[in-house]
Amino acid sequence: MTTAIFIILALGTFAIGTAEFAAMSLVPMISRSLGISEPQAGYTIIAYAAGVSIGAPLLAVFGARFSRKTLLIGMMLLYAAGNALSALATSFYALLVFRFITGLPHGAYFGVAGLVAASLVPASKRSQAVSRVILGLTIATIAGVPMANMIGLYVGWRWTFVSIAALALLTLCLIRFLVPHQPPCPDATIRAELNALRVKQVWLTLGIGVIGFGGIFCVYTYLASIMDHVTHLPESAVPPMLAVLGIGMTAGTLLCGWLADHRMMPTMGGVLLTGAVAMAAFPFAAKAVIPLTVVIFLIGASGGLSTVVQSRLLSVATGSEGLAAALNQSAFNTANAIGPWLGGLAIAHDLGWTSVGWVGLALSLGGFIIFLLSLAEEAWSKQARSRGA
Known about the structure:
The protein has 389 residues and is mainly alpha-helical. It has helices at 2-25, 27-34, 38-41, 43-62, 68-88, 92-103, 106-118, 126-154, 157-178, 190-194, 200-212, 214-229, 238-260, 264-285, 289-301, 305-316, 321-348, 355-388.
């Protein structure tokens, strides 16, 4: 039964991951359809990320007294509605609004689903449980996103959002009938959840996610355009390349989930440096398909950072896990806003399509610097406590 629950929860993250990453690959199509530039179409990604960043903490805090099952059902319903509205958008500004609405339940779903998964296993396997839920997102990058991209190519980008809305409704039904009820925690209050904001390590860990993950979104958002303008590949080559990134992300998620249960902080530092190396190689690799494929795999593998950050937040925010878990998605979708924005600025200022690799390198190294600050603060706190004792 536990495995079935993991699969159902992962189906929700699969739907969310397909919507989030497919929207990035649909940027050129949306651009042509609505008569706007590709960097401008990239702002629909930012609108979605803004919805995630705002919705995740609000739903986590004000939903603390509801059962986790009720929250999961409500968030899938809102997600289905947002994608359906996106499919009906007739203007750029309407699409911005609807993508913002769609993003609102994203982070809270990941947070609540992660808490449900973690509650089903011993504490020593919590990172692996979280990785199984996040696995739905990584599988989306292998199967869901290429499939959604193909729907966009052959039927139209609007039907991509229709199919995602249908998938969200399917997840809602499965949660309704198969996921057991979990009563709300009697100690869960708005004040208790907000206590997470008083913990320095929570803020530092969120900073690692915001900055360190931005490079992945920076490259991902403009990958289809780069493959067209730099690598000179046809649009039909985009889905297979997206699948390569997804395979890398799946491998990174599984490996980081296992490693984090043994050595959490070394795992976090290692995956940040892996991302930095891949970003540095990207501008050179983008000129030919084989080196580009290798680098895209490594960039995807660095996406395992999500699992490590989620587990770290659960360990440093005792008593406020709901808000901390949701804030993880706020962090990564703030990265989803920062990465495409900075990449778009670089491209708009005639630095070239491959300049997104250098932007990604700066963000990965920035995340690593915050990681070092987190280690230093933790060591200082331990010394202070030992002197006080």
